[in-house]
Design goal:
The chain contains 12 helices and 17 strands. The chain is an alpha+beta fold and 450 residues long.
Length: 450
Amino acid sequence: MSLKEPVHVVGGGLAGSEAAWQLARAGIPSVLHEMRPLRATPAHVTAGLAELVCSNSFRSDDAENNAVGLLHEEMRRCGSLILRAADQSRVPAGGALAVDRHGFSAAVEAALIGEPLIELRREEIAGLPPAAWDSVIIATGPLTSPSLAEAVRMLTGEDSLAFFDAIAPIVDRDSVDMEQAWMQSRYGKGDGSDYINCPLDRPQYEAFIRALLAGDKTEFHDWEKDTPYFEACLPIEVMAARGLDTLRWGPMKPVGLRDPRRPTGAYAVVQLRQDNALGTLYNMVGFQTKLKHAEQKRIFRLIPGLEQAEFARFGGLHRNTFLNSPRLLDRALRLQAMPRLRFAGQVTGVEGYVESAAIGLLAGRFAAAERRGEAVVPPPPSTALGALLQHITGGADAKSFQPMNINFGLFPPLPEGAVTRANRGERKPLLARRALNDLDGWLGARAAAE
């Protein structure tokens, strides 16, 4: 196996971009294949690498108390391109890491194009990659081309699972009525005023819920009707159908917010989060939807402050596919039925931008080690990277496998007695500190081996 032979990376999303970057950092050449703009997808709107589709937020950046924040820090320590670009294009979002989506994509693409060890080819890989490609990372995401998805199904003898994912609308900042809305972060996090808040009283909230439930929605094709939703990204009207107060305890909760013009507080609140560096676009937090576009415009304008809202993008719905990874992949992310194929990103059944990029990071490192003839050593399961990897490659029950975000429930428990009633609130920081210590040990061991 020659070090000059490239590893082929199929898919230029977050996972594929990160995988190619990690290969280059290890001195291994790669060819990055991206089918856009030659072939479009139902969700992407540009041809840019690492385009963010559903949201511009990478969620919490708290490395001590939040598992995804810990994953951010681990990836930074691993030299992640995705986290570097996110930090460079960051926009205000309280305690979250949110980015200017266009600036983020441009930063990733510029880094990859400027790297001599990475060749970018704009082409679709239809069906299985050519047999001559001895090392392939398939990072085609949840919008894998039908021909490639079908080829994998035929190879494994097992259907890919599928679920619906929804996209939230984006509004023009200047069209929001700030006479009714106000700026504040929940609990004063970040700069304390990173979100636009639109308050509803009880009659307004109940009228809004009635409109949501009655609104005209996207119809499914016959072949889509048995496809479930992903619970962490439900359309807002699906949540509303679960009960009148469901949204008040979800994305429209007023807790931690205080309208300065309402001494008694709002009954419900719609939050808007900055979506670009200029601060001209804001997305409606938690407002994924399958409402038809005309209905979105009509119903969302019922929200105080959004009566004249101009929508830069309406919400949408797309069908995602992913592998039953606990059954089909080994611990090095290789397809057991054809080990020259390694999978990364959302197609493996992780959920979220950061988690997808994290699996791309691991796939790139594993492919590089394999190319150099070294042992593939996964990160310890006590780390966020290792916990996520272990879950999708055997920790989860293959019979009921569903997409999973990183969370502290995936980590091995602390030693008995480490958490007592007196220090119960320290459990997450203790897990995080152990994770970073173990990650540094893993990185040090890898560096010594190299």
